[in-house]
Inverse folding.
C-alpha cells in the first residue's frame, strides 16, 4: 500500500501505529491482578517527563497495523482488552473498538483524556496530566481516576481533577515509580486522612512482568 493510502487509513482509524501488544496481568488500579490483553498504540504529545514508555511518543516509529489484525490477535488471548499508549485517543478508536466488540470482548482504555473521546468502552481509566488537561466527556464518563504522584503538589492537582469526575468514579493515587520510596508514605498518610481515595501501585513492576 502506498504511503498516502496508509496515512489515510491511519487518519480514519482503520490502521493504527501499533507499538506492542501482549497478554499479562493488569498491574494498576481497580482491575489489578486480573488477566488482560494490552494493546499499546504509539503517538503522544502530552510529554510527561517521568513517562516510562517515552518510546511510544513518536507514532512514526511504530508500524501502521490493520485493526482487523489487531482485533483477531487480541481475541486469541483474553476477553478483556486494555488499550493504552502513548495516548490512544490521538487516533479515532471507533473502528478498532467496533471490531473488538464484534468479537465479544470487554474493552478498557487508559487515557489522559486530552483528546476527544472516541470508541465504545466498558471501562475508562482517566489519568490526567498537567501538561495537557483532559477535556469532556472523558472526566464525566470516567469509571476510574488515577493520578500519578511525583511530588506533594500533585495531591492538589488530584483534588482539582476529582472535582471533574462523577460521584461514582473510583479515585486512585499512584506513586511515580522512580520516586516511589519517597512519595508512597506521603500517599498512604493522605489516603488515611482522605479515605475517598485509594492507593494504586504498579504491582506488575514488583512482579517483574510486562
Amino acid at each position: 500500500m502506498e504511503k498516502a493510502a496508509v496515512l489515510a487509513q491511519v487518519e480514519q482509524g482503520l490502521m493504527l501505529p501499533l507499538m506492542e501488544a501482549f497478554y499479562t496481568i493488569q498491574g494498576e488500579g481497580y482491575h489489578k491482578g486480573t488477566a488482560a490483553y494490552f494493546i499499546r498504540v504509539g503517538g503522544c504529545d502530552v510529554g510527561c517527563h517521568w513517562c516510562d514508555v517515552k518510546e511510544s511518543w513518536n507514532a512514526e516509529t511504530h508500524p501502521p497495523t490493520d485493526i482487523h489484525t489487531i482485533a483477531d490477535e487480541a481475541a486469541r488471548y483474553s476477553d478483556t482488552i486494555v488499550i493504552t499508549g502513548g495516548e490512544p485517543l490521538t487516533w479515532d478508536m471507533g473502528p478498532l473498538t467496533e471490531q473488538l466488540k464484534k468479537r465479544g470482548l470487554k474493552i478498557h482504555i487508559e487515557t489522559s483524556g486530552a483528546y476527544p473521546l472516541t470508541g465504545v468502552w466498558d471501562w475508562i481509566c482517566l489519568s490526567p496530566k498537567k501538561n495537557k488537561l483532559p477535556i469532556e466527556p472523558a472526566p464525566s464518563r470516567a469509571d476510574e481516576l488515577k493520578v500519578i504522584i511525583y511530588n506533594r503538589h500533585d495531591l492538589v492537582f488530584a483534588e482539582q481533577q476529582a472535582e471533574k469526575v462523577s460521584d461514582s468514579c473510583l479515585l486512585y493515587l499512584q506513586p511515580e515509580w522512580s520516586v516511589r520510596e519517597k512519595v508512597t508514605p506521603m500517599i498512604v498518610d493522605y489516603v488515611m486522612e482522605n479515605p475517598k481515595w485509594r492507593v494504586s501501585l504498579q504491582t506488575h513492576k514488583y512482579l517483574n512482568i510486562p
